[in-house]
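Each record in this resource describes a single protein on a pair of labelled lines. An example record follows, reproduced without changes.
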Amino acid sequence: MRIFKTALVVALVLGLLVFVFLEPIKRAAVVHLSLDYAVEGPAAEGARFDALDAPYTRFDIAMREVVAGFERPTELAFVPGAAGLLLVAEKGGTLWWADLHAGTRGELLSVEPLTASEQGLLGFALHPQFATNGRLYINYTARRDGGDHTLVEERRVPKGADLRTATVSGGATLLDVEQPYPNHNGGQLLFGPDGMLYVPLGDGGLKNDPFGHGQNRSTILGSIARLDVDAPAPHVPADNPFVGTEGVHPLIWATGVRNPWRSAFHPDGRLIVADVGQDMWEEVGFARKGSFLGWNGREARHCFPLDAECEAPGDHEILPFWEYQHPVGLSITGGLVYTGPAIPELTGRYLVADFAMGRLWALPVPEGDEPVGDATVLTLGTWDVLPVSFAADEQGEIYIADYGRGRVLRIEAAVVE
């Protein structure tokens, strides 16, 4: 009996220790098991095509390096009204300007973010009236009150200032969201045609969405938030879909996302969201006001877990219009709709990539939510890049940030020999 009691006490103590230390162990595992995407050596030139491209239609492009020397870039955008002036954010916390015409560059601002796993300075956006109000916004992860937090903050430069010489001043914190794990932060900021700031947020990390954030509308995690930066704090737009609904976070615009890594507005105003999958599928689909994008009941168009049964899509659920399976790719990076003149065959197509594999595609954009057939998709091949973000210049030509080699490349028409 004494041995039994001793064993019981030991089991209870061990159980208590596991309970106390389980979350720190999980957090540490996320950090230590995160892949290191650093690369070495010169980049291979040109695209490769293999058997995994067979379902798609081949289309040849070229890519030209326009600026290099960055450390793990995460986001890029052109400054409206300043031809050739590009902003590039680095994971480590610096936001640079690069003048592509003059070949010069400099630091615009810096913060001190957490950088473990998928943390860092992850996104930024300029106010639609930036030229007259000098307001810009950054999204990064930082340590606050003993926990990891996503912070969306405002910064300012003098009205009409040239960013190559401007001094940046601090501003208010618009959004402060505690993150349970150091992955699935989302991290992008983008202004919509309605002038509102959209903030795609991941489900908070680990795997399997352990807290059910994707389907819990009381939390802002696992959702796309929408803020009115011109309104007083807490910056809730009066026409957000759940304003006044008890138990629902008022900043939520759409729910059911896992880790939306880059979203973009179609020229017609629809929001296209690329959501990183977990076990088998990567996806691209639309998000609308009050909609549910499926996570974690679905991974892309499939029940999750894959052997589970799931209900038919509800009235507000939107299934993705395109998906691809592992190992075609492992981690989607959303892109942009091409509107430039240089490659007319791509006009109106949505360019998207896989971060881990370096594959690029150009998708037709459906009028509704109907699936896009693979045969109508253009494969642009596999490149020696880690495509982490896309940007378009004033002409609509598209650029890609290469996370691995710290450079920016411009997509161009293929060279005809």
About this structure: The chain is about 10% helix and 35% strand. Confidence is low (pLDDT under 50) at residues 16-20. Residues 71-330 form a domain with the Neuraminidase fold (CATH 2.120.10.30).
